[in-house]
């Protein structure tokens, strides 16, 4: 049997290695299954919710954000808008220019000439590991894609989603609740655009804080994530699961290279968390210090989601060493 192969003929699971820089690889790296009790969702639904679009985010929701670190907005996008977004993502996947740019991103990252932790619009197209078996001409389909990144300068439709005035107004208010000044949030930048398309069997994204992936000083620069459901999202097919808490009390947690760059399983195993099921067009807005994760898709339906991260325009970047001094468990002398 060839090295690195299981008896089934599939690629063996690998432990995530931060040093290998696999974010932009063409095919995802298979990892081990997560423990059964890692996403133990409480029976109660999310509490800080509103309906009717981002204009519905008012003082009550912002007060709730201050106490929980998230806001759920139901019906943020219409059914027609959701279909237009999905079509735009499909166009990106099929676009030869984007695919070539994604190949270049992978090359630059592998040679340490590009650091995705600095944010920006760097195209990434990553297929599910299983798509290796498909002819190249058949791969360019959303059903085979795990992750898309850096598309907001390649699609007017997708950029318009991020630039929706009511969405950006809600993000500004959330940033100020986290401690940013009105002057700091006068202009926003799209720190990252991302689509996570979890097919049946699609692997988990373990518990983490987004700031652990970003080269910004989390004590000084506040960011907000916006996660938009493009399909029915349930606990079974990989809904976001969060550990709420007061936003100003959220602090960096040690991360480790295990199944991914993640918080140690022992932090949350057996603990109740909040699952965030959404209908198409619903959105979750959250602090990038909010611990969250998505379990393996155990259903027979694909889970589609679009995500943006926003920062004050011109937010000062740090570097990997500075980030790992704050979030790197091994460097902090913490074990997992």
Automatic annotation (TrEMBL):
Coiled coil: none annotated. GO terms for molecular function: metal ion binding; oxidoreductase activity. It comes from the Eukaryota. It holds the Pfam family PhyH. Its cofactor is Fe cation. PANTHER family: ECTOINE DIOXYGENASE, PHYTANOYL-COA DIOXYGENASE DOMAIN CONTAINING 1. This is Fe2OG dioxygenase domain-containing protein. The lineage of its organism: Eukaryota, Sar, Alveolata, Dinophyceae, Gonyaulacales.
């Amino acid at each position: 049997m060839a090295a690195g192969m299981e008896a089934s003929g599939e690629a063996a699971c690998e432990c995530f290695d931060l040093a290998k820089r696999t974010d932009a690889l063409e095919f995802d790296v298979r990892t081990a299954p997560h423990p059964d009790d890692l996403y133990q969702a409480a029976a109660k639904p999310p509490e800080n919710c509103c309906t009717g679009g981002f204009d519905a985010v008012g003082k009550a929701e912002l007060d709730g954000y201050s106490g929980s670190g998230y806001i759920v907005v139901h019906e943020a996008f219409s059914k027609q808008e959701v279909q237009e977004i999905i079509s735009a993502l499909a166009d990106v996947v099929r676009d030869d220019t984007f695919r070539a740019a994604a190949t270049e991103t992978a090359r630059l990252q592998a040679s340490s000439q590009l650091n995705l932790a600095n944010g920006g619009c760097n195209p990434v197209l990553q297929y599910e590991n299983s798509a290796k078996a498909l002819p190249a001409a058949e791969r360019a389909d959303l059903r085979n894609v795990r992750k898309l990144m850096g598309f907001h300068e390649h699609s007017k439709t997708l950029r318009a989603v991020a630039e929706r005035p009511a969405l950006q107004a809600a993000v500004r208010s959330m940033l100020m609740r986290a401690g940013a000044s009105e002057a700091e949030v006068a202009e926003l930048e799209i720190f990252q655009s991302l689509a996570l398309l979890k097919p049946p069997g699609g692997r988990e994204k373990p518990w983490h804080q987004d700031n652990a992936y970003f080269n910004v000083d989390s004590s000084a620069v506040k960011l907000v994530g916006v996660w938009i459901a493009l399909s029915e999202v349930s606990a079974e097919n990989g809904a976001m699961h969060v550990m709420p808490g007061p936003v100003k009390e959220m602090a960096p947690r040690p991360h480790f290279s295990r199944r991914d760059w993640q918080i140690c399983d022992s932090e949350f195993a057996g603990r109740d968390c909040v699952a965030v099921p959404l209908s198409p067009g619903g959105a979750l807005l959250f602090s990038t210090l909010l611990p969250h994760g998505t379990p393996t898709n155990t259903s027979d339906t694909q889970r589609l989601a679009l995500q943006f991260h926003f920062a004050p325009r011109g937010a000062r970047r740090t570097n990997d060493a500075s980030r790992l001094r704050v979030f790197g468990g091994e460097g902090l002398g913490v074990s997992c």
